[in-house]
């Protein structure tokens, strides 16, 4: 629709439903975004889900195939989506950001490797935590400065200090690159 | 306050918090010794680790505070009674990959950049940059409200003239009658100390000024710890 909201009620399939401890009900919905939606990185998505009680608080952790990469992005590397109580409507509003492209993750990894002087044996994955690689707060800030130079972006100080994994850095970079006024190649 | 240091640790370790608390805690109001192994821990709403006093009557005034910092080769734990504490350690020889002044301009306050810019020897400049980094980190950690509560460029830490290792905090305020001037509030509220540990590290300590003893100097006791085995007194010093 014109305001950037897409309804995909028919695309929602319920895969699994189970109770978890504490009386909560967990339902797993599988949502395949069609290829034409691959470019939606910050658009909100609303859909109808059956059996939603308006007084409950819901938290949604999504698994998404993004951009034909056929990569399953796990919740830990994906911005988890949570939303509070909603009153009357049964529409749930989500913000889905596709996780960063593998090339970006790779470039971030290279910069991290250089800043922390890691040996080539040290395995780096998107989930690698800076602190686990031996980075302290000063290293994190230096990494962010190097990323700013590499990608020609500007990172807010509080964002800089809150990045903890390679994936988070890559996601933030792609977010900032996309927001730049004129598209510039990196 | 007490700082315990453990040196020569390998990179992958997990810190057992009770093991860093000195073997004999000072007795507090109830005049009982507390067994460190009985302590429980939790995180505050911003993620700062704290002692969980489950049976305390007045939890706004916690008897014991601590904060931890580490590098590749050293872990430091600062412990205080009644006042919040923040501690940060860095290797003295740590190289900064970026130009020190460019780094400072990006993150530090204008006054701090000016201070660093006046230092001609690049080695001294690098060391002072690191000292400032540890002091600023120690303050943010003492505050315990996350980095967004005190962005680095909103406060200045400067040497107190005539003291060795004494610093104070000035907060810059942009609300002023003269738009080009920033008013600075350099009143107390927080105390700082900068020390060298194990000849290899700078350690900055920040504690909140105790209302009962406002303006009293900070007494810092440094011990080297082998967890659960021994504490070795290294130094005791007063920071004015």
Give a written overview of the molecule.
Chain B: Keywords: Transferase. Chain B: Residues 84-174 form the 4'-phosphopantetheinyl transferase domain. The complex is a heterodimer of chains A (186) and B (240). Chain A is α+β, with helices and mostly antiparallel strands and 186 residues long. Chain A has helices spanning 102-115, 137-151, 157-162, 166-179; strands at 6-7, 12-19, 25-31, 44-48, 58-60, 81-83, 91-95. In chain A, the strands form 3 sheets. In chain A, strands 1-4-7 form a 3-stranded mixed beta sheet, with no helix packed on it. In chain A, a hairpin with a 5-residue loop joins strand 2 and strand 3. The two termini of chain A are 32 Å apart. Chain B is of the alpha+beta class. Chain B contains 4 helices and 13 strands. In chain B, strands 6, 7, 8, 9, 10 and 11 form a 6-stranded antiparallel beta sheet that branches. A 5-stranded mixed beta sheet of chain B has the order 4-5-1-12-13, with no helix packed on it. In chain B, strands 2-3 form a two-stranded antiparallel sheet. In chain B, a hairpin with a 3-residue loop joins strand 12 (218-226) and strand 13 (230-239). Residues 6-14 and 23-31 of chain B have low confidence and may be disordered. The A-B interface holds A 115, 132, 134, 136-138, 141-142, 145-146, 157-158, 161-162 and B 11-12, 70-72, 88, 90, 94, 96-98, 103, 106-107, 130, 133, 137, 147-148, 151-153.
